[in-house]
Amino acid sequence: MIVEDLTEEFLEGTLDKMSAEELIKWAFENFGEKAAIGTSFQLSGSVIIDIASKAVDDFRIFTVDTCRLHPETEEAISAAEDRYGVPVERFKPDAGRVKEMVERFGEYLFFDDKAKQEYCCSIRKVEPNTAALETLSVWITGLRRDQSKARESAPKSEILSEWDHKILKLSPLIDWTAQDVWKYVRDNDVPYNTLFDKGYDSVGCIICSTPLNSGEAPRSGRWRWFNGSDDKKECGIHIPKKGEDK
Q1: pLDDT, tens digit, for every residue of 90-121?
Q2: What are the residues facing 38 on neighbouring strands?
Q3: In whole numbers, what is the pLDDT of the chain averaged over residues?
Q4: Please, is 41 exposed, middle or buried when counting C-beta atoms within 10 Å of its C-beta (0-12, 13-18, 19+)?
Q5: Rounded (10°) angle between helices 71-84 and 43-55
Q6: pLDDT digit string (tens) for 44-56?
Q7: How many Å apart are CA 209 and CA 201, to the nearest integer?
Q8: Strands (E), the chain
């Protein structure tokens, strides 16, 4: 099976109607090493890894290592590798690109304005993620519609054409709630990022993700200095597009 053969009718009529377990199993059984779970070790990603471990014998996991991960995220990566016996593939930013960015704009450019935050995310996250996708036909993500307003209409399955080859992007937990995710974690003793015991709702780089304050909306802890603006609170990984460097 190849992605180019998949129709919108198949996505909507078959894939979108599958349960999370069925969809994950279908992906790995039909695409093998060309399918992978991409996760930054949010709770959803940990759940997907656990589901995959019960659905198939072999599967791939990759993460974008921005070189600014929380220690707890590093511990979560190690815990997953120990539990499931699957190495987590790390994709890091190009060192030369990072050096050039820092020399040009400074180490903490993301505080300056939205454009520089997006540029930093592009260098440290989007470009390594794109490198991972170059090895794939199927990208399995932990996106959920309840995570933010920007994700309320996110599809369960879609075909992306932004690169040299088409990629099937799957979000098996798209219609799960945060409560559903936590219930699965607890019922199945899933190893997870302990930042979620410390008030975090979403985890990224060590400076750019912080715990939620009481009453704050989901993802308010991401780039919180932009709270109150029209910021969609996205790094760019889930709104991929080609474009020229800044």
Answers
A1: 999 999 999 999 999 999 999 998 899 999 99
A2: 62
A3: 89
A4: buried
A5: 10
A6: 999 999 999 999 9
A7: 9
A8: 35-38, 61-64, 88-91, 138-140, 157-160, 167-170
Place of tokens 């929380």: 70
In single-letter form, the type of residue at position 213 comes to N
When pLDDT is cut at 50, 70 and 90, the band that residue 205 belongs to is very high
Q: How long, in residues, is the chain?
A: 246
Active site residues: 235
DSSP assignment of 151-212 equals GTT--SEEEE-SSSS-EEEE-TTTT--HHHHHHHHHHTT----GGGGTT-SS--BTTTB-PP
Cβ–Cβ < 8 Å for 139, 131: no
Q: 């070790």: which residue's tokens? A: 41
- At 138, phi and psi to the nearest 5? -130, 125
Confidence band for 243, pLDDT divided at 50, 70 and 90: very low
pTM score over 0.70: yes
Q: Name the token pair of 224.
A: 């919180």
Closest CA to 160 of 242, 88, 91: 242
Q: What is the pLDDT of residue 159?
A: 92
Query: What does the angle CA 127 – CA 132 – CA 137 come to, to the nearest 5 degrees?
Result: 125
CB atoms within 10 A of CB 142: 24
Domains recognised in the chain with CATH numbers: 3-226 (3.40.50.620)
Closest CA to 156 of 4, 17, 2: 17
Check if the beta carbon of residue 69 is closer than 8 Å to that of residue 42. Answer: no
